[in-house]
């Protein structure tokens, strides 16, 4: 049995958690996790393109919006509608900068990455 299936099975058999694995409750949380994963990928890749992130739940799965991701400048991203309680939301990411040859395979980058020092933390503010 897969890890996720086993966890869902165990939760479904605890009265306090049984409703948590029902699709009506689980689906919005899975989608919010996907949203946060997507935002972190866009920030770490320094993505300059605009994107629309569909089906983001607000109050419930029946109340979904599309969030527009737009780069304002080198350190600022605008999200509309803005999904966070803190505005602006400072995001701090440790970085390692390595000189990479696009022809290199990922395995060839492991040694320079491991040897690189973590640069000073830098900030991106996600603004409304």
Describe this structure in a few short sentences.
With 128 residues, this protein is α+β, with helices and mostly antiparallel strands.
How would you sum up this structure, described in words?
This protein is α+β, with helices and mostly antiparallel strands. Helices cover 33% and strands 30% of the residues. It has three helices and five strands, in the order H-H-E-E-E-E-H-E. The protein has a five-stranded mixed sheet, with helices on one face. A hairpin with a 6-residue loop joins strand 1 and strand 2.
Counted by DSSP, the helix tally is 3
| Fraction of helical residues | 25-40%
Rg over C-alpha atoms, rounded to the nearest angstrom: 19 Å
Unreliable spans: none
Distance N to C terminus? 43 Å
Extended strand count: 5
Averaged pLDDT = 82
Structural class, by secondary structure, is: alpha+beta
Give, in spatial order, the strands making up the sheet with the most strands.
1-2-3-5-4
Helix-strand string: HHEEEEHE
Task: Output the keywords.
30% strand, 128 residues, alpha+beta, 5-stranded mixed β-sheet, extended
